[in-house]
Amino acid sequence: MGTTNVMMEHIVRAHHVLKEVIVRTPLQRDPILSARYDCNVYLKREDLQVVRSFKIRGAYNKIRHLSEEELQRGIVCASAGNHAQGVAFSCQALRIQGTIVMPSTTPSQKVTQVKRFGGTYVNVVLTGDTYDDAYEAAMKICGENGMTFIHPFDDPYIVAGNGTVGMEIMESLDAPADYAFVTIGGGGLAAGVGSYIKTVSPNTRIIGVEPQGAASMSEALAQKEVVTLQHIDKFVDGAAVKRVGQLPFDICSQVLDDVIHVPEGKACTTILQLYNESAIVVEPAGALTIAALDLYREQIRGKTVVCVVSGGNNDIDRMQEIKERSLIYEGLKYYFTVNFPQRAGALREFLQEVLGPNDDITRFEYYKKHNKDNGAALVGIELQHPDDYAPLLERMKKKNLTYIEVNKDSVLFDLLV
Question: Could you confirm whether 398 is annotated as catalytic?
């Protein structure tokens, strides 16, 4: 375990450095989740951190280890979210100049947060459509001005700072946890937390959790080298990374016992449950570890389990999409294109004879702008129970309706919904 032994020393040092700025977030036993899974579930609440995510730990630790000369020249980072906020906060705290490069597509709420945390010490540059565009621009700024780039995850000081989450977890528990679930994006958090916990408690199983649509660590572990995914689902923005870091990969391949994938829709269901049941606001990446408990239900029964809640920067504007994705994942919402017969009363018959007593139409629009009394329409239907779906299809067939299930065609779904 060569890499991790070096990390331990760095993590202990980082712990002392970080006392200056971070809050020691609570490790809370969650009674609802504990009852649901018949075990002791503890949540490490990094959503309650000063920038509402763990990212401040790595960013501040890295910046504090720069030379006086490097600090004078200033720092640069590329990020659309939590890393940007962590770097901005660090600039203000240490009174150094920073340039934060963000994609032009970044929600204004996140840009405002970065400016608020950084104050006069931060210059925000909006460029391009993607993280890759922002990264390219950031590297150019570094080259032209001799500034230091602060990587979001592929750096020993970043990993060590993140590792202090593991240190706090182990110090807060009376006995070591049986399982620790950690979100994986670029891998910096899992590498740091895994390093610390495995060193002090080798029997604790470390489970990495990735979004299903961006499982870059799983792919790297399968190929035994870091690889770049061509296409990813960016929905879980805090963990949707095309390529994990080399250092996190090296460490994770030693310390992780398993890596599992959570469907994006399942993460959405978890976000809504946590909000409704416990008034906890998490972002999609922060929900992954809790959503993963379902996939480990049998193994964790009767055990002590820790879930790292990585962050709570959830944009309220996304709640409608989150609800929609949850309903679709739970089998409660379906979209169809329905070709109605070219005769009067066809729509009324659909409502009376095809729709079930508890089914709701949530969307209805004809494709043709003229002659709206017949022809093809996009129909959104919400069910009360997943079992209502088969009878609905049966009734549609019985009426000889021509239809396409849009949910099952990703191209059509992205186009229409």
Answer: no
Task: Exactly one of 55, 110, 266, 333 is catalytic; name it.
Answer: 55
Backbone angles phi, psi at 346, to 5 degrees: -65, -40
Instruction: For helices 2-18 and 246-255, give the axis angle rounded to 10 degrees.
Output: 110
- H or E segment at 335? strand 333-340
Say whether 115 is catalytic. Answer: no
Q: Which two tokens stand for residue 298?
A: 């049998």
DSSP category for residue 28: E
- Report the distance separating Cα 89 and Cα 96, nearest Å: 10
> What is the C-alpha separation between 12 and 314, in angstroms, rounded?
31
Q: How far is it, in rounded angstroms, from Cα 167 to Cα 196?
A: 6
Question: In b/e form, how buried is each residue of 48-83, taking b as 16+ CB within 10 angstroms?
Answer: bbbbbbbbbbbbbbbbbbbeeeebebbbbbbbbbbb
Ordered per-residue pLDDT tens for the chain, 417 residues: 345 555 889 999 999 999 989 999 999 999 999 999 999 999 999 999 999 999 999 999 999 999 999 999 999 999 978 999 999 999 999 999 999 999 888 878 888 999 999 999 999 999 988 777 888 999 999 999 899 999 999 999 999 999 999 999 999 999 999 999 999 999 999 999 999 999 999 999 999 999 999 999 999 999 999 999 998 888 888 888 899 999 999 999 999 999 999 999 999 999 999 999 999 999 999 999 999 999 999 999 999 999 999 999 888 888 899 999 999 999 999 999 998 887 778 888 898 999 999 999 999 988 766 555 557 889 999 999 999 999 999 999 998 888 999 988 878 887 777
Phi and psi (nearest 5°) for 79? -170, 150
151-179: b or e for each residue (b if 16 or more CB lie within 10 Å)?
bbbbbbbbbbbbbbbbbbbbeebeebbbb
Say if residues 297 and 303 touch (Cβ distance below 8 Å): no
Which amino acid belongs to residue 85?
Answer: Q
Q: Which of 79, 90, 216, 310 is catalytic?
A: 310
CA atoms lying within 13 Å on the CB side of residue 104: 5
